[in-house]
Write a structure and sequence with these properties.
The protein folds into 2 domains: 2-31 and 247-432, Enolpyruvate transferase domain (UDP-n-acetylglucosamine1-carboxyvinyl-transferase, Chain); 34-244, Alpha-beta prism (UDP-n-acetylglucosamine1-carboxyvinyl-transferase, Chain). The protein contains 15 helices and 23 strands. The protein has helices spanning 2-12, 34-43, 60-71, 97-100, 109-117, 136-144, 179-189, 205-216, 249-261, 277-285, 322-329, 349-355, 385-397, 407-413, 417-422, and strands spanning 15-19, 27-29, 50-54, 75-79, 82-86, 119-123, 148-152, 155-159, 171-173, 195-199, 220-222, 228-232, 240-244, 266-269, 288-292, 297-301, 309-310, 335-339, 359-363, 366-370, 379-381, 401-405, 428-431. Helix 9 runs parallel beside helix 11 (322-329) and helix 13 (385-397) crosses helix 14. The longest helix has 13 residues, at 249-261. The chain binds uridine-diphosphate-N-acetylglucosamine. Uridine-diphosphate-N-acetylglucosamine is lined by residues 35, 38, 104-105, 131-138, 176, 178-181, 202, 206, 318-320, 342-343. Uridine-diphosphate-N-acetylglucosamine binds at residues 35, 38, 104-105, 131-138, 176, 178-181, 202, 206, 318-320, 342-343.
Length: 433
């Protein structure tokens, strides 16, 4: 027994120690959206002028993307929450495997590299714990735009023939509304000859944010945020100063769930409420009162009742909030059914929640959760970014001190999470050894 706990301790370092049964009070501040910032950074490759982003979150994923762009010869100037990118010095079309492997979004630079200079060699992104995550749609779309694409030895090589090295506009119907494929093709099409239409496009707010940046850079795009996007190719794009990244809807949702699971009235800001409609509806359905204004949301949790969720592409309930929402449901009154429809292996947090006393049964990609009166603290592992967030939420509510490891995942997507939560009354400590 002692040996087993020593092994667990070994696995668990470093960890976040969380005092449970906490009550939160005050305002939780939301940073810029990770998934927007990452793709906006790759859009910087499309011009030889400076693209400056503000409201950039402080995350290891952002640092990784900065390193990838630097390896391509881009001058990256990162200070506080702003990043200025200058791709006038672009000198490589092949991001290094070791860096791409750590960050799936870096594959999306294949679209901007091709659009800008007609050539790209990008390693296939690595495997992912939550599911297969293919890039078939990205490749199919680039071929439709006239690129020659081959995949050999794990590297995707794409090039455009012809003296002007420009892609050619085309009609593309995506088989599934992939966020990454929509963003890749959007960036590839803005400098193509002629008009491109992307049907069954992803409608996520991050796609719209990318479109808004590209429009400010001189692109001609209509329909982003809806299922059909039309792009009229232009000759060149120019730089932009002070483009603010949208607030992170997933971080905002996680904070609203932190309020709900600790039964604490809180305010979360800034939030663009339309980006969270499906989540807000579920929070109301389970017994939270929400006051929404232009800058944020005030939440007053009541007695939390079980509700069912099914993850879907936007505007449906986001897969990235499935694990955090499940943490809330473990303490709800009644039985809830949570179905994961986007990723085939995104219920790894179930076993960890069970270690904390949650009553959960899994059937295929569905979890059936019987709410318990209280979770009990335990050492747990966050096996991916959102699973780690779910463990933090569970720890805030549990009886005792929870130790959450897997911080390398948490730090990829939550900007300074312990400082933010501690500022509103939580007691989180990072233990390095
Ligand atoms: C983005 C987000 C991620 C989020 C996901 C779904 C970024 C950096 N990441 O990931 O946080 O969880 O959207 O909202 O923005 N698919 C295919 N073929 C393809 C591409 C995708 O079948 O060629 C499927 C995937 O297997 C998955 C679904 O489409 O089931 C969604 O994937 P996609 O929208 O591409 O996710 P990402 O853009 O990688």
């Amino acid at each position: 027994m002692a040996a087993a706990s020593a092994v667990y301790q070994e696995i668990l370092n470093p960890c976040l120690s969380i005092e449970g049964r906490c009550r939160l009070q005050g305002v939780l501040k939301v940073s810029g959206a990770k998934n927007s910032a990452l793709v906006l950074m790759t859009a910087g490759l499309l011009t030889d002028e400076v693209v400056e982003l503000t409201n950039v979150p402080n995350l290891t994923d952002i640092d990784s993307m900065g390193r990838i762009l630097s390896a391509l010869g881009v001058h990256v100037d990162h200070s506080d929450n702003s990043i200025a990118l200058n791709a006038a010095t672009l000198s490589s079309h092949e991001p290094p495997y070791e860096l791409v492997n750590s960050l799936r979004a870096s594959f999306f630079c294949i679209g901007s590299l091709l659009g800008r200079s007609g050539h790209a060699r990008v390693p296939l992104p690595g495997g992912c714990r939550i599911g297969a995550r293919p890039v078939v749609e990205h490749i199919r779309g680039l071929k439709a735009l006239g690129a020659h694409v081959s995949v050999e030895h794990g590297i995707v090589t794409a090039s455009v023939k012809g003296s002007n090295k420009r892609l050619t506009g085309a009609s593309i119907v995506l088989d599934c509304p992939s966020v990454g494929a929509t963003e890749t093709l959007l960036m590839a099409a803005v400098l193509a000859d002629g008009t491109t239409m992307i049907e069954n496009a992803a409608q996520e707010p991050e796609v719209q944010d990318l479109s808004n940046l590209l429009i400010q850079m001189g692109a001609e795009i209509s329909g982003a945020g809806g299922p059909v996007i039309t792009i009229r190719g232009v000759e060149r794009l120019h730089g932009v100063r002070n483009y603010p990244v949208i607030p992170d809807r997933i971080e905002a949702g996680t904070f609203l769930l932190a309020a709900a699971i600790t039964r604490s009235p809180m305010r979360v800001e800034p939030v663009i409420p339309e980006h969270l409609s499906a989540v807000l509806q579920k929070l109301r359905d389970c017994g939270c009162k929400l006051d929404i204004d232009q800058t944020g949301i005030s939440i007053t949790p009541g007695e939390i009742q079980a509700v069912d969720i099914t993850t879907q592409p936007f505007p449906g309930f986001p897969t990235d909030l499935q694990a955090p929402f499940m943490a809330l449901m473990t303490t709800a009154k009644g039985t809830s059914v949570i179905s994961e429809k986007i990723y085939e292996n995104r219920l790894q947090h179930v076993a960890e929640l069970q270690r904390m006393g949650a009553s959960i049964r899994v059937e295929s990609s569905t979890a059936i959760i019987e709410g318990v009166i209280e979770l009990s603290a335990a050492p747990v592992i966050g096996s991916d970014l959102r699973a780690a967030a779910a463990m933090v939420l569970a720890g805030l509510a549990a009886n005792g001190t929870t130790k959450v490891s897997g911080l390398e995942h948490l730090d990829r997507g939550y900007d300074n999470v312990e400082a933010k939560l501690n500022a509103v009354g939580a007691n989180l400590k990072r233990q390095q050894s």
